[in-house]
């Protein structure tokens, strides 16, 4: 169907092109016969042919009719091709009439008509059907007019004095026209295709340029965002190593170090989250939770930052909310956190207000309207359509202190798509911004054992079994971190530098858990795990890797690993993950 549409479009373009290119020649054809037909009768006059008067009168009438056709074409009643074709048909009729008149000789008439056919073939580009109609009509009318209306000897005289050449020229005329039109059409087809290819190349060039610019912007943004916290981390570590610090200074440096590492972690998580959402690797994990508790935890999270900037942090929550709603509280929390974080970041004085209102409810679902409003710098109208694009911020050059990954709003918009919702913005420069969205949730009014909306933190281990852990990793920093965390809990361990060493140590026995890096020299974690699984199907083997891609996780689960822990990780996450495999009983608080 697409090819048919393309062919139809090309044919229309070709007809339009042919009409435009041959407009002048169609006019020239009509004007030539308008002037040359009467002039051709002079030859009959000089030869003393009595047919002269009939010819001149006939050509005057035909010339008048050609003038009418020229006027109709000028008025755009008929096209140029239609004009020349109608003029030709009309003149065939007049020529047939003249050939039926008494002739002394047909030589001059046949010569004139043959030259006319040649001239028509050279100057015009008709559709083949026009040429075919013209030739058939000429080949039928000319001999018929002479045979039925001329003198008895005229028919034979016509053929002996040039009629054969005239009819042959008429017979060849459609073939000549087909070849000429075909040549022109092929040339146009090549030009048309070349133009189409040029347009497509221009599009691809634009796409490539935009992609290059996006890549450059991304690298520039990521360079700033990653190098800034790294600078803090590297600098503070060197200061702590080079100088004797009192406890107060050391604590300040550690606080800054933690802030820089948390910021770096947030950058990496933003990029990974955005990549996962765009790859459709994120699905909502729905469970019942208390919305009031979620919003209160959110408020407590932003109180310190708002207090630092002396902003009024207002949480206006509808008191009619259901006791529990069913949805993904983690992703909902992420959306709201991004919006409030941006509001606080871009507001220097005034307030940040988070509002939740119930707008509709039936027996099973409730629709909530969320609003984050601030009195910050606002967003110019021309920049509003782009702020939800990845790696885009408002006036990044002017607000250097407020720079970030530029992914928060893009992630929020994509997450809202999973909630079958969209985000709306109202803003004016220097007057603040209002971000809003609505989501429809299933709800429950009875009390349920809700899944915690925030991560639980391990406080202490109540009982330690005689556990021993095998650590397989070639990176000294990763080994140091893992061993220090195990030493804190008095858990025994052995270290292997590669997968082969890990397998050999495993054969010695006595291990309750294996922490296996995936990328190692000599033998990687996948090969080592495959060998271990041939001997022991039950020992827990946890994959440790810096990759957080879904494809990597799928390969890990398919390769015999028990679990998967992505680097970097914080101590609480590390303990929470390995303790169940070691049989450690833990006490937890939210």
UniProtKB/TrEMBL annotation:
It is found in: Membrane. InterPro entries: CheY-like_superfamily (IPR011006), HATPase_C_sf (IPR036890), HATPase_dom (IPR003594), His_kinase_dom (IPR005467), HisK_dim/P_dom (IPR003661), HisK_dim/P_sf (IPR036097), Sig_transdc_His_kin-like_C (IPR004358), Sig_transdc_resp-reg_receiver (IPR001789). Keywords: ATP-binding, Kinase, Membrane, Nucleotide-binding, Phosphoprotein, Transferase, Transmembrane, Transmembrane helix, Two-component regulatory system. Its EC number is 2.7.13.3. Residues 468-582 form the Response regulatory domain. Coiled coil: none annotated. The modification 4-aspartylphosphate is found at residue 517. One of its GO terms (cellular component) is membrane. GO terms for molecular function: ATP binding; phosphorelay sensor kinase activity. It is an enzyme of class 2 (transferase). This is histidine kinase. It comes from Dyadobacter chenwenxiniae.
């Amino acid at each position: 169907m697409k090819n048919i549409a393309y062919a139809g479009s090309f044919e229309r373009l070709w007809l339009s092109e042919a009409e435009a290119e041959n407009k002048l020649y169609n006019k020239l054809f009509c004007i030539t016969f308008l002037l040359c037909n009467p002039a051709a009768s002079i030859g009959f006059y000089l030869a003393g042919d009595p047919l002269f008067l009939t010819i001149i009168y006939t050509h005057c009438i035909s010339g008048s009719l050609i003038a009418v056709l020229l006027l109709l074409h000028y008025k755009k009643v008929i096209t140029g091709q239609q004009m020349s074709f109608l003029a030709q048909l009309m003149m065939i009729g007049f020529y047939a009439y003249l050939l039926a008149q008494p002739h002394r000789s047909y030589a001059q008439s046949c010569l004139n008509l043959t030259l006319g056919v040649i001239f028509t073939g050279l100057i015009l580009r008709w559709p083949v059907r026009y040429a075919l109609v013209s030739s058939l009509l000429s080949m039928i009318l000319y001999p018929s007019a002479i045979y039925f209306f001329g003198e008895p000897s005229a028919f034979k005289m016509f053929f002996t004095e040039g009629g054969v050449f005239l009819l042959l020229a008429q017979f060849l005329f459609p073939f000549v026209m087909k070849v000429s039109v075909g040549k022109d059409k092929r040339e146009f087809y090549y030009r048309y295709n070349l133009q189409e290819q040029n347009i497509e190349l221009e599009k691809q060039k634009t796409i490539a340029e935009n992609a290059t610019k996006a890549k450059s912007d991304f690298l520039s943004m990521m360079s700033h965002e990653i190098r800034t916290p790294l600078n803090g981390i590297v600098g503070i570590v060197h200061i702590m190593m080079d100088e004797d610090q009192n406890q107060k200074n050391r604590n300040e440096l550690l606080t800054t170090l933690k802030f820089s590492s948390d910021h770096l972690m947030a950058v990496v998580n933003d990029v990974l989250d955005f990549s996962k959402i765009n790859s459709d690797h994120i699905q909502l994990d729905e469970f019942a939770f208390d919305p009031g508790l979620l919003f209160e935890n959110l408020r407590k999270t932003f109180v310190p930052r708002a207090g630092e900037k002396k902003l009024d942090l207002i949480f206006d929550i509808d008191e009619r909310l259901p006791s529990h709603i069913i949805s993904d509280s983690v992703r909902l929390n992420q959306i709201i956190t991004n919006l409030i974080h941006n509001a606080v970041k871009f507001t220097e004085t005034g307030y940040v207000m988070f509002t939740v209102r119930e707008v509709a409810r039936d027996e099973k679902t409730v629709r909530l309207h969320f609003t984050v409003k601030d009195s910050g710098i606002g967003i110019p109208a021309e920049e509003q359509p782009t702020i939800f694009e990845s790696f885009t911020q408002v006036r990044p050059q002017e607000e250097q202190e407020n720079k970030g990954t530029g992914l928060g709003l893009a992630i929020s918009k994509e997450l809202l798509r999973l909630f079958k919702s969209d985000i709306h913005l109202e803003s004016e420069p220097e007057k603040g911004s209002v971000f809003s969205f609505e989501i429809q949730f299933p709800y429950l009014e009875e009390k349920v054992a809700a899944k915690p909306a925030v991560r639980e933190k391990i406080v202490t281990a109540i009982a330690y079994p005689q556990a021993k852990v095998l650590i397989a990793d070639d990176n000294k920093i990763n080994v140091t971190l893992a061993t220090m965390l195990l030493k804190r809990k008095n858990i025994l361990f052995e270290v292997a530098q590669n997968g082969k060493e890990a397998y050999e140590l495993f054969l010695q026995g006595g291990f309750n858990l294996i922490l296996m890096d995936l990328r190692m020299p000599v033998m990687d974690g996948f090969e080592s795990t495959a060998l271990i699984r041939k001997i022991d199907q039950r020992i827990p083997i946890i994959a440790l890797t810096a990759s957080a891609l879904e494809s990597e996780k799928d390969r890990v689960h398919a390769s015999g690993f028990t679990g998967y822990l992505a680097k970097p990780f914080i101590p609480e996450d590390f303990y929470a993950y390995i303790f169940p495999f070691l049989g450690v009983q833990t006490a937890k608080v939210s």
